[in-house]
Amino acid sequence: MAAKPVGSAIADNRGVSMMGSALEKAGLVDTLNAASSWTVFVPSNGAFARMPEEQLVAIAGDRERMTLLLRNHIVAGRLSSEQISGTHNTLAGSKVTVTDDKGTTIVNSIARVVCANVKTTNAAVYFIDTVLTPS
After folding, report:
1. Domain coordinates of the chain in residue numbers?
2. 8 Å CB contact between 120 and 39
3. pLDDT at position 74
4. Which InterPro entries would you find in this protein's record (predicted)?
5. What is the pLDDT along the chain (135 residues), one digit of tens a residue?
6. pLDDT of residue 63
7. CA distance linking residue 3 with residue 101, whole number of Å
8. What pTM value is reported for the model?
9. Tell me, what's the pLDDT at 2?
10. DSSP per residue over the chain, as a string?
11. Are the CB atoms for 84 and 98 separated by under 8 Å?
12. What are the C-alpha distances in Å from 70 to residues 3, 25, 57, 62, 131?
């Protein structure tokens, strides 16, 4: 992942192909590739598979809703593992809160970070086990 910008790195990663496909459908790959500094919380394919089917179908069929969901996972600025704890503004206009629970990094009290601070040419990527749905 380190040799590519974040949009392309996610789109090319089979383990997060659902997120990559959604970024492509929403037209966000180029947006992510063009900027110099992001933090992206990337749900695994399993995280998407655990979403209620009707919710997943509704999001997949509504580009605006899909874009909002994806932007809820993106924070401007590259946050290292030392900087990630706290509350950050997402591109969706919402907040994402990251805490440490006995050595486990938790996002919005629901998602566990399973792989932290993976670097791309323009981002820090945090792989998570739950999709962050907007409030």
Report:
1. 6-128
2. no
3. 98
4. Adhesion/Biosynth-related, FAS1_dom_sf, FAS1_domain
5. 678 999 999 999 999 999 999 999 999 999 999 988 999 999 999 999 999 999 999 998 999 999 999 999 999 999 999 999 999 999 999 999 999 999 999 999 999 999 999 999 999 999 999 999 987
6. 93
7. 32
8. 0.95
9. 77
10. -TTS-HHHHHHT-GGGHHHHHHHHHHT-HHHHHHSS-EEEEEE-HHHHHTS-HHHHHHHHT-HHHHHHHHHTTEEES---TTT-SEEEEBTTS-EEEEEEETTEEEETTTEEEEEEEEE-SSEEEEEESS-----
11. yes
12. 23, 11, 15, 12, 9
Q: Which amino acid is at 127?
A: F
Q: Which residue has the tokens 């179908």?
A: 57
Task: Please state the CATH superfamily assignment of the domain spanning residues 6-128 in this structure.
Answer: FAS1 domain (2.30.180.10)
Q: Report residue 115 as tokens.
A: 């792989």
The 123-128 sheet, strands edge to edge: 74-76, 38-43, 123-128, 111-119, 104-107, 95-101, 86-89
